[in-house]
Structure formats: structure tokens, C-alpha cells
């Protein structure tokens, strides 16, 4: 057991009670919705967290990168979805090897990305990636049938269903009603695409939505069969702003100390963008500043960061002294995870364990 005051800063903390509550409550909500839960692994990249999600009934995981797929396959976790187009010779070679190991589906949206996999002579279970509003990857619903027919005709390609990432819900800000409506709409559009594929004679057992802000809407649409939220294991300041969680559900914080206070109105901490990631900087904040117990300091803002320095402003900085400990709830838990090789498990104000974070870039 280590007291927070004895840890070298900055340090990444995960509150065990909050983590376990988040894992259990999302599993319960998805059970109530009658859908399977396939959490995105990118949020934690931590096997100790993944095991808790599996213990609560997750069917497997969603991955973004080859390293995430490999780590989970090496751990013997089956039923993985690699929700990223494997383009380029190195990624195709990895995908072929991973597909041969079994228990893997790939998200695809074009014949261009599917053809090299087909040519490798391997069986490729896949979900058709459909754009329901984010405007990132994914075919438009109007082009879904034509694309699915084309992909399913390629040797080795086996259509298992459809997927979408309703990441555009993040643009609704504090308009939770608008966000919920857009989440329901995304689920409906995907379920309609699945129905159209079936009319065209294709099998489409999996209808997979996926996001934390959408987890209260899209999975509850009739016809949706699985959900892939990721951020919910920790939540973060971004999700609090969207109304997906309250601050007391946020499990991940960065422990930091005030290291300099030379100018009135500004103090400098030892957590910069290499501790937080720069996610959210464009929105004017790198996270919610709290005291060591996790209570937010409403009059202190984390407005900027260099690599290893953070800039706090606001009237509350007048109380802060060099050496003071603070905790910051990051804007984006997933980006923050990727900055760290390990996390300290926090229990009742002390750290009780250290878990590795793996499969980072
Ligand atoms: C394809 C896909 N599925 C699921 C998720 C999980 O969404 P969230 O981070 O909102 O939980 C993401 C997040 O980027 C994603 O890209």
C-alpha cells in the first residue's frame, strides 16, 4: 500500500471501486437491453480491466490496432472484432495471421480493403461498417446492400452482420435529449440496413452499435444485437459534459503536483500533454482539476499544456502552493491511457496494486 503523497508524480490512478461499478452497471444495462456487450479494449489496454469485463459477461472485445488484437489473442480471448480497415501490406499480413488463429471478425467498408485478405486464401468473417452520421469510415446506408453483396462474393469473405460507431453523438454537447434521439436514430438506421441485407438474401445475425454516449439509446433499438462502448470503464470529463456519467463515476485520474507559481493567476503542474494526451485542448481544457480526494476545484482550470508542464489558471490558483498534490480527471480516458505504461490501482485513498498497460503505439 502506498499513500498518494509518497508516489512520484505524475502518476496514472484508477479507482478500483469506481471501475468495478462502471463495469457491472454497463453489463447490467446491456443485459436489460437484451444485447451482447463487446467493449472496446482501447480505453484500458489493460488485461486486469478486460478480465473484469469478461467476468461480468462481455462476449469478447472490440480492438483498433494489431497490437490490441495480438495481446487479447495471446491471452486466449476469442470473439474479437477488429473495427479498423487493415490496409497496407504489414497490416494485411498481420490480419491474415490473426484470422488463421480464429475467433476474429474484421470491420470492412470496401472491396479495396477486402480484396487483399480474400487473395490471401483465408476465411474472413466480417461486419459491414456503416456510417450512421459520424462521417468517418463506413458505407452510407444507401450503398450498404450493394457493397455487402460485392464483399460477400469475394472468396473467403463471410458476412456476419453490420456495425456502426455513432461517434457523432459527441457533437451534441449538453443537449442530452438531442443526443439520445440521435443515438436512437443511429440504431434504427443500422437495424434498417440489416433488414435490407436480409431481404437481399444475405445473412445478417449481428447488428452492432458502439459508443459510450450512445449506450443509453442505440442498444435499446429493436433489431440491435450488440453494443461496443469503451470509455465507460473509466468515463472522463468529456463524458461528464455529454451527460453520460457524473464526475463521481470517473475512475481514471492523473496525480500531479504544483511545481511552480511564479505569476499571479497561474500555477504550473508536472502533468502536461505527455501525461494527459492533448485530447480536449482545442476545447480549452485538458481535464477537471480536483483535490487529492477527488473533489473538483471549480475555480481552477487546466487551460494548456507543454510536454511535461500543465498550466492552471483561475481564482483558485491563489490557494495553491508549490508541492500541493492535485488529481485531474482527463478529458479523454482512452487518449490518456495510451500515454502510460502502467496504472496504480487506488483503493480508499491509497494505491494497492500496479497494473501494466500494454499494446500501446
Ligand atoms: C469502432 C468503435 N467502436 C466503439 C467505440 C467506443 O466508443 P466510446 O469511446 O464512445 O466508448 C469506438 C470509439 O472510438 C470506436 O471507434
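^ C-alpha cells above, recovered residues below v
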Amino acid at each position: 500500500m502506498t499513500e498518494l503523497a509518497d508516489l512520484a508524480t505524475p502518476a496514472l490512478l484508477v479507482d478500483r471501486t469506481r471501475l468495478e461499478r462502471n463495469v457491472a452497471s454497463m453489463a447490467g444495462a446491456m443485459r436489460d437491453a437484451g444485447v451482447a456487450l463487446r467493449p472496446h479494449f482501447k480505453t484500458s489496454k489493460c488485461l486486469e480491466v478486460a478480465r473484469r469485463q469478461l467476468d461480468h459477461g462481455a462476449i469478447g472485445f472490440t480492438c483498433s490496432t494489431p497490437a490490441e488484437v495480438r495481446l487479447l489473442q495471446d491471452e486466449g480471448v476469442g470473439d474479437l472484432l477488429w473495427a479498423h480497415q487493415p490496409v497496407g501490406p504489414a497490416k494485411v499480413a498481420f490480419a491474415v495471421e490473426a484470422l488463421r488463429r480464429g475467433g476474429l471478425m474484421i470491420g470492412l467498408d470496401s472491396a479495396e480493403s477486402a480484396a487483399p485478405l480474400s487473395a490471401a486464401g483465408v476465411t474472413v468473417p466480417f461486419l459491414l461498417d456503416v456510417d450512421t452520421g459520424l462521417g468517418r469510415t463506413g458505407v452510407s446506408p444507401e450503398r450498404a446492400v450493394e457493397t455487402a453483396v460485392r464483399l460477400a462474393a469475394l472468396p473467403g469473405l463471410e458476412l456476419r452482420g453490420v456495425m456502426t460507431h455513432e461517434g457523432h453523438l459527441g457533437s451534441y454537447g449538453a443537449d442530452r435529449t438531442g443526443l439520445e434521439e440521435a443515438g436512437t436514430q443511429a440504431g434504427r438506421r443500422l437495424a434498417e440496413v440489416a433488414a435490407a441485407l436480409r431481404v437481399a438474401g444475405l445473412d445478417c445475425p449481428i447488428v452492432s452499435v458502439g459508443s459510450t454516449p450512445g449506450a443509453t439509446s442505440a442498444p435499446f433499438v429493436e433489431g440491435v444485437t450488440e453494443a461496443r462502448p469503451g470509455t465507460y470503464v473509466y468515463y472522463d470529463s468529456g463524458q461528464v459534459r455529454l451527460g453520460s456519467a457524473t464526475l463521481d463515476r470517473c475512475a481514471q485520474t492523473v496525480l500531479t503536483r504544483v511545481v511552480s507559481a511564479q505569476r499571479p493567476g497561474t500555477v504550473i503542474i508536472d502533468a502536461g500533454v505527455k501525461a494527459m494526451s492533448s485530447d480536449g485542448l482545442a476545447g480549452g481544457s485538458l481535464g477537471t482539476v480536483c483535490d487529492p480526494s477527488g473533489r473538483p476545484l471549480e475555480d481552477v482550470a487546466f487551460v494548456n499544456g507543454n510536454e511535461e508542464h500543465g498550466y492552471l489558471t483561475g481564482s483558485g490558483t491563489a490557494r495553491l502552493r508549490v508541492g500541493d498534490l492535485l488529481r485531474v480527471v482527463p478529458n479523454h480516458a482512452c487518449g490518456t491511457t495510451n500515454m502510460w505504461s502502467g496504472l496504480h490501482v487506488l483503493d480508499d485513498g491509497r494505491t494497492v496494486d500496479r497494473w501494466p498497460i500494454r499494446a500501446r503505439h
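The radius of gyration is 21 Å.
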